[in-house]
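Loading example: each entry is read as two labelled lines plus one structure line.
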Amino acid sequence: MYINILLKKILFISLLTHLALSQDNEFNKVFYKKLVSVPCVRILNSTGVMGCQSLKPTSGLLILTETQDLLNDFIKSDRKGKYVVILPYELMTNDNLRSLESSGKMSGVLTLINGTDPSSSNSAPIIQRPIFLSPDEKCPSCQFGLYRNDESRYIWNPNGLGIIQERYDFPIFALYPYDKPSIKSYNRIINGVQFNERKSYVRFPLKAVEFDALMYAAVDASTCLRRNFCNPVGGYSVYSTPSIDMNENDGKPIIIVSAAMDSKSLFQDITFGLNNGISGSIALIAIADALSRSPTPVKNFQKHILFTSFAGESWGFLGSQRFVKNIFEPFNCIQNKTKPTTSCGFNTGNFGGCTFPCFRDLDFKRINFGNIDSIFELSSVANGISKGPGNIQEFKYFVHVDNENNAGNRLLMQGLGALSAVGGTGAGFVRNASEDGVFRKLPPSSSMAFLEKNINIPAVVISDFQANLSNYYNSEYDDGSDLDVSTIISSICSIANVTSQAVWLHAQNLLSPTSSAANNPISVNCTLVGLLFDCLTVDASCSLFDAFRKSKDDRISHYTGVFQQGSQQLLPRFHYNVLGSINANSISDRKCKNDVDCEFGEICANLHCTNSFTRYHDSYGAGLEFNEKGETTIVDPEKTTWVESVWSDFKFNLFNITSSESQIGELMTGILLTILSIICVIFGKKYIRQTLKLD
Amino acid sequence: MPPNPSKIPPSEILSLCKKFFFIGLLFLPWLWVVNIIYMWPLTKHSDIGKEIKKYLYFSMAGALFWLIVLSTWYSIFVNQRITWGEFADKIIVLPIRGA
């Protein structure tokens, strides 16, 4: 009797330990090699979904199709089983992805962005870097821009693959070796492919990968917001001015100097956005710095100068549209509780804010939209230098305007041109974008949001491109590795120089078509440009980050991210601290960690309480609003309503797979063993009972 | 194991069978299913067999009715969940991820 119970107990305990062991990581580590995952995620808007999703964990044999022909062969082949297809980024066209999907042989895609062949001795690249590649639309964000109702819109990105806006119901991950773990993962995968090729895909075991990338959100933005399965795409813009006393009724015209601070691409973790994003915002900071060294303080000029660094511009102008909406429309504070509430986490009493609608402070009301005099916008400016004949550096930038007949626009264009003329004579290196006889109006830009409310505001968009957006617009290749770092820095520096001089003159009403750079005391500090460039690209230990950076990753993602009330990401914090210090009226000795440590009206910039009119401003889709309960709702489905799905974890593992025949064999053996052991137990029990005479 | 009529008085077994049926009316179709499985061997009982059979048929009809109702509801719900929008999300206990 007791022995019987004991036997059962032993059986039970061994079963439990077996179960526990099989859940254990050590067990998994033996069979699965964890890889660094750089996934494409699900994005939704008011009308539907885009991006990637994998409802069930999937797996497949690794296969590499380097060329279109190899890919076509694979699609047409009568191979059995499921494959994870490694595609060079250039082949990531919608047509290819759709035919892979309908072939039924593909369980996931790995996008090969760069990397070398680990087995070759001279580390030759597996694929060539494309000359141009943009996963974005042919006319990016045009449906949300100033010309959305125009019948024939100019196509700014003719080479765009248009895959960012497509919906894929299978996992797509990126292969992008850049640091130790990602290089290790990459090598494992490429070695796996070569292993499979050596075994001709028939001699098992072969190398396979397993994905799990379940995105919680489905259907559309309003559905996932209701279910609490998504967050609005966005973040925080930063605006800053040296005019500490700027107010709504001072009647002083305002010059806006603007840039976009972030970027987007298919794989958010590796978004770099060097040209589209970083270059303009570096130029903006450099201009602010140059103007702060003006012999007469710029706050005493006839015009205010306001710097705006917008977040989420690549997502249909999130930052600029919300900023303009807030300063343009009359603001009504419906409820102010002065203390943090569940729906609005700000101590609004401390900063003069409002509980509903939720704003930490209402200082944006001090900016009178009617006073805006002109806009200087810096688009991508990293690539303004090319090698001309005789290997001589050639500088070339272009000024885009909405209307060339607008006298204000003409003045800004001519002024910039004149200031950029080498030696003060001839045509300058800042040219009119329509000098080739084609008038294209404005490229996708922040100025559009301002012109939407008043089309007559003189606005110039300064860029290094004339007819097409940069070659790697919103792509993972926009990392500057095709350019020389010193060339990028001098490109940003020279355009920042001309723009700062133009802004300086214009703020005193002195800008003219014959303005000359000679005698202009304003010049940009190119060393600062270099430092900013390092900080925002490769140097995690940069001194400008000291005040607020905790983690020290080698690489900073310039992806927009999601809007979370009161929590600013790295890039807005960077701009807030840097611009806050540059435009400071006075910097006190009092140390601080946060704005709350300082007095009313002060901000905490670079760990010091600073008297500076520098603020964060919300940035999320113009079609979204927060209601009284703090929930995001869609108020205008026609406007931008981008939201990003929530997820819990990504699985991305490499493992050895056996053939389906041997898998059936294993199953059969298992069943047989179970039957055998049942028989053994029955007979064993009888035998024990008999020998021990238990009955 | 059905109740043994040689140990428990048949009248008591019959009243138990009736109780199962009537309590089952309180939206408890599983109780009817239990009733059928538990009592079925007793339908051959000479004394109370006929009566029990009657209640088991009632239980069966009830269980069948619920099966049809629930499976119809399930198929409607699964197919119409998205169209119903907010209402469907409200009546759901655990939100469904990714669909």
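Chain B touches chain A at residues 82, 85-86, 89, 95, 97-99 (CB under 8 Å).
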